[in-house]
Amino acid sequence: MASAKPKFPAIKPGGSLILAWQVKGKHVVVVGGGEVAAGRIVHCLNADAVVTVVCPTSGLNPEVAFRVSEGQVKHTDRNFEQSDLDDADMVLVAIDDPAASTAIWKLCKERRIPANIADVPPECDFYFGSVHRDGPLQIMVSTNGKGPRLAASIRKFIAKQLPSNAGNAINSIGNLRVKLRSIAPDPAESRKRMAWMTKVSDTFSWEEMCKLTDEDMDFLLRYYPENKAPSFSELRIAQGAPDPQGVDPFDGSFGFSVGA
Amino acid sequence: MASAKPKFPAIKPGGSLILAWQVKGKHVVVVGGGEVAAGRIVHCLNADAVVTVVCPTSGLNPEVAFRVSEGQVKHTDRNFEQSDLDDADMVLVAIDDPAASTAIWKLCKERRIPANIADVPPECDFYFGSVHRDGPLQIMVSTNGKGPRLAASIRKFIAKQLPSNAGNAINSIGNLRVKLRSIAPDPAESRKRMAWMTKVSDTFSWEEMCKLTDEDMDFLLRYYPENKAPSFSELRIAQGAPDPQGVDPFDGSFGFSVGA
């Protein structure tokens, strides 16, 4: 019996489940104080985690020692002990001791604590990748363990392509949503708000989004009541910017009326 | 007392900890069968998870119903019950019932099961982002909840910039590493192998890496014994490709001798 094949996304097995883990105020225990640990610590602090480094002072590299001395991380000045897991929400191990690493991994699994043992893929609930950061924007490149250096190279390539103010686009959208909620706070209007945000997002290229000023946004909100979204150039022209096309900004030729 | 400030990466708080979660063979419970659930299911199947959808058949949308009928996911044909968590490694909730969602979240937290309640940020251990996938390459764009549609738009922008065979570059590097290990299997040589892989990765642009054929790689390995890395054009010329510069490929003018 022949049947039309439904057009749903094809499954592409073999990847990871890439997730933006929320560790704000969570307790991450980093075991080790070398270069790998230093990298992990930066990732965690960038995500507002509370970090404890477990490592004898003699084993801290200059960067980790610096973060300890600045109070950016807590420091347990000895080798790992089981009690270090008592209030851990996540454990990252980066020590040159496979037996000790495996022992810590097993303890974490008994306690259902997510853990990563550096360089031991089977003893990892998750892998790290190469992350580009621009304000609220984070782009993570993973090669699923096949080429960490290439991941970093791809991440740099991507960063070079992005407009320098890409993070601003996201802040703009976030601000626009907040402003919108303040002029149209009715919970019953949530569907209308969402539909308009979608319309604006679909109308503007994200490069244009980057250029949106606070003034632009306030003006843009005037289009909300009628659920209209002007193009970026229409928006600028409507505000009285010089019109490259010679069109009178207020002649109604854009097919929508400007509320105000 | 003035002291030189160490030059370590500055902390940029406010982000997430983006991780490539390993869920191969792990049990992910998806509660709900609508559009959001459908998206979650694809993410999980792409990462080789074992997925159970908990939702009455009447609540399944066509895509989820299709995945159930194809046996891609297991199906529990009723509303959520506490026992659904018994062997869950991760729980994703996407139902239009805030009270039930919160109850599930609390149960997950009691049992230390990582969970995501769609559209309820405070009840999420992690957020999803927009993911580009090309073979082993995964690029995840997160706006940290500020603009999901913009994340998708940035993801598409990035995908457009990448060479169409970017995933191949990663497979190439992976293959080269495997080939290298087979011609130089001595564990004592691991440092030399790593140094050479690094040299090659640093010499080739990743666009060039994409173009590496199997033949190129076999030829490239001849440079390993002397820890040399030719440029991509040198490699092609050395193999007898037409030389745009008119240089005799074997006159030794590249500054290294070709082993073999």
Automatic annotation (TrEMBL), chains A, B:
Pfam families cross-referenced by the UniProt entry: NAD_binding_7 (PF13241), Sirohm_synth_C (PF14823), Sirohm_synth_M (PF14824)
Keywords attached to this entry: NAD, Oxidoreductase, Porphyrin biosynthesis
E.C. number: 1.3.1.76
Pathway assigned in UniProt: Porphyrin-containing compound metabolism; siroheme biosynthesis; sirohydrochlorin from precorrin-2: step 1/1
InterPro entries noted in UniProt: Met8-like (IPR028161), Met8_C (IPR028162), NAD(P)-bd_dom_sf (IPR036291), Sirohaem_synthase_central (IPR028281), Sirohaem_synthase_N (IPR006367)
Gene Ontology MF term list: ferrochelatase activity; precorrin-2 dehydrogenase activity
GO biological process, one term: siroheme biosynthetic process
Reaction catalysis annotation: precorrin-2 + NAD(+) = sirohydrochlorin + NADH + 2 H(+)
Enzyme class: oxidoreductase
Signal peptide residues on this chain, from the entry's feature table: none
Gene3D superfamilies associated with the record: NAD(P)-binding Rossmann-like Domain, Siroheme synthase, domain 2, Siroheme synthase, domain 3
Domain Siroheme synthase central: 134-161
Domain spans labelled Siroheme biosynthesis protein Met8 C-terminal: 163-230
NCBIfam families assigned: cysG_Nterm (TIGR01470)
Protein's recorded name: precorrin-2 dehydrogenase
Lineage: Eukaryota, Fungi, Dikarya, Ascomycota, Pezizomycotina
